[in-house]
Amino acid sequence: xxxxxxxxxxxxxxxxxxxxxxxxxxxxxxxxxxxxxxxxxxxxxxxxxxxxxxxxxxxxxxxxxxxxxxxxxxxxxxxxxxxxxxxxxxxxxxxxxxxxxxxxxxxxxxxxxxxxxxxxxxxxxxxxxxxxxxxxxxxxxxxxxxxxxxxxxxxxxxxxxxxxxxxxxxxxxxxxxxxxxxxxxxxxxxxxxxxxxxxxxxxxx
Length: 205
Known about the structure:
This protein is α/β, with parallel strands linked by helices. The protein has one domain (2-204): Rossmann fold (3-Layer(aba) Sandwich), CATH 3.40.50. It is 55% helix and 13% strand. It is built from nine helices and five strands. The chain has helices at residues 14-23, 31-38, 44-53, 66-73, 78-103, 135-146, 150-161, 167-171, 184-204; strands at 2-8, 27-30, 108-112, 127-132, 176-179. It has a five-stranded parallel β-sheet, sandwiched between helices. The protein is globular.
């Protein structure tokens, strides 16, 4: 089985690229979904996050309010949060890949993770795809996704980007770079080319 990591900057369209890969037959896992699970009451990660960042990050029902948590951790304490969450996320995504390998030894498994490289998880993959786009495109997409005014979106993209490697730094760790500032047809062409190469590599694997 071929293990592929998918990452990129804030609002660069990673999920769009992941969907295009899944359409072509890739098994897909979004690491952010694992983080959501870890934030659930009863998880040891939940207890540690609340201990470190206080009960002000909680909703009335005791669940973690991710917006409040983000406001506490960005930009100065994000490394502290990542130190709690990342090891368990990496462990679970590796466990998922092992399960996929058992069920489909000839498959291609794709894990989308915003901080895949920063978490030191790139070594867990055979290939890494980095999705990039220009800054104004990030702002526009973030505003559309969150229904926020452009000025708010710009500040949030800048704040979140400060906690990550730059697109250029991420690209240096990539086997493939998808420049995703253009139309969906352009993204599809890039994905199709990469998919064919991944299939070739899987056959050799």
